Amino acid sequence: MQYRETLPLKDHEVVLTFDDGPLPKYSNQVLKILDDECIKATFFIIGSQAKANPEGVRKLVAAGHTVGTHSMNHPLTFDRMPVEKFEPEINGGIEWTSAAMTDPSKLAPFFRIPGLMRAEGVENYLISRGIQVWSADFPADDWRHVSSDRVYQLAIQRLEAKGKGILLLHDIQARTVAALPKIIRDLKARGYRIVHVVPATAERPATPTTPVEWLLHPPTETVPIARWPAVPRFAFTQTTMLPAPSLADLNAETAHQSLLPRRTKGQMDIASTLPVPGRALFAIPEGSIEVLLSTTLSRRAATRLAMAAETAHAARGKVAKGKAARPQARHTAHAAPAAAKHAAQAKSGTPRPTRVASLKKRA
After folding, report:
1. Are residues 170 and 310 located together in one domain of the fold?
2. Res 30: pLDDT
């Protein structure tokens, strides 16, 4: 459920696993059902349960089942725990489970993270200790408040959808005890084989497998691959920049025939002989009245500018009364010719020039 790989099972092979025990009231009943059907399973023990019921752990070992661990207190926060918290949880479960056994070497190096809350740090720590991390291929939801019939239905439906895999159950639930006999009988009737997983030893080496056999859905020639291979990254050994082309590369020398049209080349020769215009040619004196009077639209602005200049000059040499009178008189003198001019234009029928707002200058 959390990994791309699972156990290297063949089609119609099932592994039964039980979590959170041992709890005498229900675990003993599960042991009896498995014994009656001649089935071996894998149990993941909680350290606090082993501490409270060491006899239950010894019964599992004596019956020939595989015993792994499931943390000390079953916290559902392994995916966000720092190392100083998940390390004692893992070690505590291992220590109390092995302490409950008559022969601690019977403890399998298998671990299932509570709630399947996987985390990279937890996995790396378990791998460093040589412990295999277990998940599941399908659960039966027997930890939820559902009926035993619903547990049976989910187990069979999800197994049929995958064709093989690891079934996750809990030996501390009454609904699991009620559903287990029917699950086992139906598995056998449908042609499934229940497989017992044990740790490899010197006397019993690991089952020979290939990497592809650990995939739940290995690729075949009849199934198209849904993932395209990644584009390879190329490493360039030389990254020297090429020089820019010169005129010689374009055959532009006089000794060679030009690649450019004759007309274009002639224009280039003429342009190269013309003198460069002086900068003063384009300079316009700032505040020049002559420049402002050169256009009809700027005459009013020029007049206002001249009046302002004369007013400032008069203010430096005369009293305040003279300063106020002279601009008024000058303004009247300028206004009279303007009025006469407008009247003459009206009589003659000559249209007045249109002012363009965007070109109007203001002093």
Report:
1. no
2. 98
